[in-house]
Amino acid sequence: MESFKIVRPEHLNHHGVLFGGEMLKWVDEYAWLSACRDFSGCRWVTIGMDKVEFKNMVLPGSILHFCTDIEKKGNTSVTYLVRVFADEEGAKDEKEVFSTLVTLVNVDKDGQKAVICK
């Protein structure tokens, strides 16, 4: 799945660049959205995020490009590789700014692991 987001002033830290917590929130959200679309009828919760390393800072006005692809599927969980690229205002090329693996598990109404729906 591909998604896009523009970096606005409310997303910045005290140094005037993207706050890392905002990036992590979006990465988690887009992985969850991908799981919901790929496996409808499931109840997904995030159980883990792999290495968190910011490769480049992100300037205000940048357009973020999120690429979310299935890396691994089990009986109750799915792991997505989420890569994030930034297209700074006026730039001709995107640069990779972040990537990680996000693992989600399907749970039943009691919060217990459940077999993936599809």
What do these coordinates show?
With 118 residues, the protein is α+β, with helices and mostly antiparallel strands. It has one domain (2-106): Thiol Ester Dehydrase, Chain A (Roll). Helix content is 16%, strand content 38%. It contains one helix and five strands; from the N terminus they run βαββββ. It has one helix spanning 20-38; strands at residues 2-6, 44-49, 63-73, 77-87, 95-106. It has a five-stranded antiparallel beta sheet with strand order 1-3-4-5-2, covered by helices on one side. Strand 4 and strand 5 form a beta hairpin. The two termini are 18 Å apart. The relative contact order is 0.26. The mean pLDDT is 96.
Sum up the structure in keywords.
118 residues, alpha+beta, Thiol Ester Dehydrase, Chain A, 5-stranded antiparallel sheet, 1 helix, 16% helix, elongated
Could you write a compact summary of the structure shown?
With about 120 residues, this protein is α+β, with helices and mostly antiparallel strands. Helices cover about 15% and strands about 40% of the residues. The chain has a single domain (about 1-105), classed as Thiol Ester Dehydrase, Chain A (Roll), CATH 3.10.129.
How are helices and strands ordered from N to C? Answer: EHEEEE
User: What is the CATH superfamily classification?
Assistant: Hotdog Thioesterase
Beta-strand content bin: 35-45%
CATH architectural category: Roll
Low-pLDDT parts are none
Report the helical percentage. Answer: 10-25%
CATH fold category name = Thiol Ester Dehydrase, Chain A
Largest sheet: 5 strands, antiparallel
Distance between the termini: 18 Å
Q: For the CA atoms, what is the radius of gyration?
A: 15 Å
In CATH, what is the class? Alpha Beta
Domain unit count: 1
- Silhouette: elongated
Average pLDDT taken over every residue: 96
Structural class, from helix and strand content? Answer: alpha+beta
Task: Give the count of helical stretches.
Answer: 1
Strand order of the largest sheet: 1-3-4-5-2
* DSSP summary, beta strand count: 5
